[in-house]
Amino acid sequence: MDSDCGSGGGVLGRRGEAFPAMLKAVVKTIALLVILYVMLYVGMHNTQAIDFHIPIAGTTEKTPIHASAALVYFGIFAVGLVTGTILAVRSGGGKKSGSRDK
Q: Helix or strand or coil: residue 84?
């Protein structure tokens, strides 16, 4: 007999629904670690200083940012990661909070 009485969405949830969500979280974590490793690898091998230009932004067109290539790479990665996180949270990430039937 399948009874969900008092389970409250524990480890298994309803009929094992939590396992795919947990697997999805683990896969996302591993993917993020791989990306962070690549960023670390690039940073270790690009220690020279570069001039960073963005023609659209008026500030860097006149006076470019002169910094380590690894630092510029990290900055671009961080901006992309934060932007992606904001977009994922705003779109709801496929789930709507508070829409649980009682």
A: helix
